[in-house]
Amino acid sequence: MGCALKQFYKCKIVLYTVSAKKFPDNPLKTREIACRVFFFFFKLIIMPPLRTPLQNKSGNSRRAKDLTPYQRGKIQGQYEEGASLTKISRSYELLISTIFDTIDMDALRDEGHSLYRSGAGLSYTLAEERRILRHIRANPKDTYAQVITACTLGCSKNTVKKILKAHGIQN
Q1: Using one digit for the tens of pLDDT, what is the confidence trace for 30-59?
Q2: How many CA atoms lie within 13 A of 141 on its CB side?
Q3: DSSP secondary structure string for all residues of 113-154
Q4: Most C-beta atoms within 10 A of its C-beta, which of 26, 72, 81, 123?
């Protein structure tokens, strides 16, 4: 924090000299403008806006971008030449864990391309799916809520709707 304050102090001096040319008659006005600009920058850069405590995080936040196959190849090449993980991470400005995972997963990748991620697991079992289908065929007029209670399911009505649609059963 002390280093940041020194940088802002230098910024204040630069702004003061620039604004002194604008108001050569009135040095007090020059100092006032320089101080206002200094504190404006200080407030903007040093104090970032905080998230409201206990507020939910945005679901739209994006994770970091994947490395390109070229970057992965460069990292693997440096590692094979004998460079340490720390040296590689500093040269690419990446976390050491990213470098380690890149090197560790290199054998599984096809020409450095990203691996596919497995999706979320199903919220129901195959036995529950068969139970739903058997119940719907016996009682076609039941609502989704009635199907869930009759079959003692732990899934949502949208899941039941998706299962029925996959088997060609719709409203």
Answers
A1: 455 545 545 544 444 555 556 666 777 666
A2: 0
A3: PPPPPP-PPPSS-HHHHHHHHHHHHH-TT--HHHHHHHTT--
A4: 72
The one-character DSSP state at 53 is T
d(CA 74, CA 92): 10
Query: Residue 44 has which token pair?
Result: 């903007």
Contact 41, 11 (CB under 8 A): yes
Higher pLDDT, 54 or 26: 54
Question: Could you tell me which of 33, 60, 45 has the C-alpha nearest to residue 7?
Answer: 45
Give the domain extent around 159: 126-166
What is the number of other CB atoms lying within 10 angstroms of the CB of residue 36?
A: 12
| Total of domains in the chain | 3
H helix and E strand count, the chain: 8, 0
Residue 120 inside a domain? The answer is no
The number of C-alpha atoms within 13 Å of 123 and in the hemisphere containing its C-beta is 10
Q: Cα Rg for the chain, rounded, in angstroms? A: 31
53 is a domain residue: no
- Helix-helix angle 126-138:157-166, to 10 degrees: 80
138 falls within a domain:
yes
